[in-house]
Design goal:
Layout (H helix, E strand, L loop, with lengths): L11 E3 L6 H12 L7 E3 L6 H12 L7 E3 L10 H12 L7 E3 L6 H11 L8 E3 L7 H11 L7 E3 L6 H9 L7 E3 L6 H12 L7 E3 L6 H12 L7 E3 L7 H11 L7 E3 L6 H12 L7 E3 L6 H14 L5 E3 L7 H11 L5 E3 L5
Parallel strand pairs: 1-2, 2-3, 3-4, 4-5, 5-6, 6-7, 7-8, 8-9, 9-10, 10-11, 11-12, 12-13
Amino acid sequence: MDSYPRYQALDTLNSEGDEIGATGAEHLANALRVNKILCTLNLNDNEIGASGAKHLAYALRMNKTLTTLNLGGNEPGNFIGPLGAEDFADALRVNQTLTALNLEGNEMGDEGTKYLADALRVNNTLTRLDLSWNKIGIPGAKHLADVLRVNTTLTSLDLQNNRIGYAGAKHLANALQALTTLDLEMNAIHSPGAKYLANALLVNQTLTTLNLANNFIRDKGAKHLADVLRENQTLTTLVLGDNGIRVLGAKYLADALLVNTTLTTINLAGNYVGCEGVEQVANALQENQSLTTLNLEGNQIGDAGAEHLAHALRVNKTLTTLNLDYNEIGASGAEHLTNASQENRVRKAFPSFA
């Protein structure tokens, strides 16, 4: 990378899925020690293992230009693991340029998470950290929560598909200080976890994006979040897809939309709100003036539900994106929506009516 003229001005290198392995990672690490141009390096899906991670982490101690490093998606047998996490933690204690680190899918577990969390107590440059798919449990969530109470630099944390449960959600909820984006999709937090997070949002003034998709929060969890949406004035994006939310949960959220003036995006894909639930949402849309994106994909709303939404769209002038894929909408429902769209600037997304 540092030896050829064609690479000397390269500021972004994408080598995703190139099977460079630990040896390739070592060669790149050697180049990073002297390279003064490269800002973004994508090495996702490269089977670099703990050995390759060690070389790259050591290079980060000397490199002063790299700002984004992606090392996600290594296969079994070549995970970075806790050892690799420890090496990167050591590097983060001295590196002052890296702002985004992706370690998704590397089986670091609670042990590796602790190493990184400890490093974040002194690091003041990293703003985005992706630890999704890493088998992080309650202890790991606590390690992260403890450091979030003192770290004021990290703004985006992705913990998708880990094992933190509602106890882990409680730890994190009590530590929301500087985060603007938190992704907890697929963590089995259930309704108690939603309640802990909702309570935190009553006082939190920084979080703008919260992803709780696929967490089994159901109607009870939806109520906890809906209640806080009446008070919170910071959250702009809320993802609640695949949570078993039915008519009652839709009503709670719809009632919140009647008074909330901050939320611009809500994702309810893959729930069971049905025609009756979508009627509640449609009624709220006639009053709400802040929501711009609504995802109702896969909610069994049918033609009658589509008609309710069409009535709302004739009044609402704010919504611009509406996803109604896979809702059993036939020709009648499609006609209602098409006619309503002529009076509204919404962009529909329902190519499948079955």
